[in-house]
Amino acid sequence: KYITHMEMKKIMMWVGVMAAMLSGCQQQYKQATTDMVVMAENDSVAVLCQVVDSAKDDLDIPEVAIWIKNKKTDKKTKLYQTVRPDWHAWYMADGNNFCPISIDSIYVTDMVTIYNNDPLQLIVEGCPDMRNEFSYFIDVPSRKAWYVPANFGYVGCTALEHCMIFQSYRYVSDPDVAGRYTYLQIFDNKGVMVDTLNLEHVHLHMP
Length: 207
Known about the structure:
Structural class: mainly beta
Number of helices: 2
Mean pLDDT: 86
Helix content: 10-25%
Order of helices and strands: HEEEEEEEEEEEEEH
């Protein structure tokens, strides 16, 4: 049986998600540098990342600055700089709505996705506590930011509705069954959750 184009896209999407999770939780020893790395780009802008303060040990994360480069003028504008959290979470619960935050309170940025070109809107992600994937939604022109209440990262967007798909992990409700299961969350462009997919029943019936 041949793999269809749509099946291949799904495979590549999940490979990308897993790579993002692993890189987010393993990139602990970035060194401070004036160099800027391209995290995402379109025809008109590039999103650049610069390490400002390197990680101190394997339990630490670097502080990075995120810049927006105008490709036409080559002008670079600093969007924000991450701040290290002074705590570590064992489990970050999921939720139903994006939560507004200060753009200067973002903990980590290991991955950037351009969600919308005009106005420029970003989804940034990272793993500050070596366990939970933190995601943020940013409207670049207004410098407004929202925390996304999902703990396992951005999956992609729906092809027709352009809704954002995030995933979280939850712990099974049956005390006799150990482990975690996947909980998919679909948000509209206002940050409101419009649908979910709960896979606990799949986990409970796995051999």
